[in-house]
Amino acid sequence: MNTPLAAKALSGQPCDHLEEATRVRAVTSWIVEAPTRRKHKLSNTSISYQGYVFVRVTMENGVEGFGEASTLGGPRWAEESVEAIKANIDTYLAPALIGKPACLLEAAAGEMAKAAKRNNAAKSALDMALLDATGKTLGVSAHVLLGGARRRSFSAIWALASGDAGQEVEEAQGMIEKGWFNRFKIKLGFADPATDLDRLAALQKTLPAGTDIIADVNQGWSEADFIRYIPRLADLGVSLIEQPLPGGQMAAMARISARSPVPIMMDEGVFTTEEALDGCTRGAGSVLSLKLCKHGGVHQLKQVAAVAQAAGVQLYGGCLLESSVGAAAHLHAFATLPDLHWGTEHFGPKILIEDLCRNGLRYENFEVHLPDGPGLGVTPDLDLIEKYARKD
Ligand code: MUC
Ligand code: MG
Questions:
Q1: Residue 130 has what pLDDT?
Q2: Closest CA to 302 of 104, 145, 152, 118
Q3: Ligand 2 centroid vs 383 CA: distance in angstroms?
Q4: Which band of pLDDT confidence, cut at 50, 70 and 90, is reported for residue 11?
Q5: Which residue has the CA at smallest separation from atom 8 of ligand 1?
Q6: Is 275 a catalytic residue?
Q7: 101, 107, 245, 336: least buried by Cβ within 10 Å?
Q8: Are the beta carbons of 57 and 102 closer than 8 angstroms?
């Protein structure tokens, strides 16, 4: 970085004007709809393009930071749609940040909390952009601002979600051949459980013995479905069952978790730190999936992780099909955690026909690698963002 502050930082001189230099001057947001390589089906939606709100924060020193809020199929995976995210950023969250120092990340999160309740995906997009801009100003990688990396790469998981057993088997084999992914998550909950489990059986039969397979039901089952189908699911050898019941049913999640021979992972049931405390205390799962769009920013993600770890709940690096911008922000936060037992599923950059970055994330030896370089360490491709930006 050639900014005067980065030069000062590198020469060991104090960055005395950091707060002045990083005051937020402008925020720009775009709704971006980027096509995926194939249909991605979940219990209550199916997508063929991924909806993001992309943000750019420009600071007084001219440095720009980028972030993105991810959704799945409108307000279906969670309550925020791209339209709502953009409206709340433009109307409430951006005005709360204008004139405030981007480098005071915790204070900025406080300003956003005062300006809007929840809206965690919208807040996380801005939070990433502030982190990116501050890192670029100081010439340091985002993880350094979060305490420093304890790992530089992550065991990576690919999601199989076309609903077509033959296609899924072929896709999984292709990922193994490329050396990108050799652990898989299969989406259940959109057909009846017996049909879904036949799909899983077909996959399990063809993959190399011992391949890690996780089942994500996306809230699609009832407690009774779970009790009926858990013996077959366990026989099929899945290592983890993600959010089988509706997110609000914490007591039922605790009951199935107590009787399940396979660990249960909380996902849609845990957004806030309070929900993490509730779920972990009640035993609604023994694993928790972390996502910036749920927790609202990197510091809140670390708080949720700390609550889980204090309760003995293991951590999983979740995603919502982010491009390399959002995925990189996650990796910087994940890199600083004491433990990330289950690795991460940040496969978003590989499911997009075109990733939204010029230097996207690197997948090698079945690991996704933490990017180097100042800020998030990835460079958004503004031509592609413009190409896929909603025009109305
Ligand atoms: C989810 O529920 O985990 C992440 C990967 C995927 O296939 O869907 C998402 C959401
Ligand atoms: Mg999930």
A1: 98
A2: 145
A3: 31
A4: low
A5: 320
A6: no
A7: 107
A8: yes
- Residue 54: exposure state from Cβ atoms within 10 A (0-12, 13-18, ≥19): buried
* Cα–Cα distance measured from residue 390 to residue 190, given in angstroms and rounded to the nearest whole number: 29
CB atoms within 10 A of CB 208: 9
Task: Name the average pLDDT for the chain.
Answer: 96
Are the beta carbons of 380 and 54 closer than 8 angstroms? yes
Smallest CA-to-CA distance from 65 within 377, 385, 388 is with 377
Q: Band of the pLDDT at 2, cuts 50, 70, 90?
A: low
Q: How far is CA 333 from CA 106, 187, 249, 348, in A?
A: 14, 26, 28, 17
Asked if pLDDT for residue 196 goes beyond 60, the answer is yes
Catalytic residue among 168, 275, 345, 367: 345
pLDDT at 15: 57
| Reported confidence tier of residue 334, pLDDT bands at 50, 70, 90 | very high
Residue 345 annotated in active site: yes
Of the listed 41, 86, 187, 302, which one is catalytic? 187
3-state secondary structure 57-110: EEECCCCEEEEEEECECCECCCCCCHHHHHHHHHHHHHHHHECCECCCHHHHHH
Distances (CA, A) of 65 to 92, 120, 320, 378, 380: 19, 19, 21, 11, 10
Q: Which of 320, 336, 317, 331 has its CA nearest to residue 377?
A: 331
pLDDT per position as a tens digit, 225-234: 999 999 999 9
Determine if ligand 1 sits within 6 Å of the CB of residue 134.
Answer: no
Q: For residue 114, what pLDDT is reported? A: 98
Residues surrounding ion ligand 2 at CB below 5 Å: 216, 242, 267
Q: Which two three-digit tokens encode residue 374? A: 């100042």
The percent of residues above 70 in pLDDT, for the chain, comes to: 96
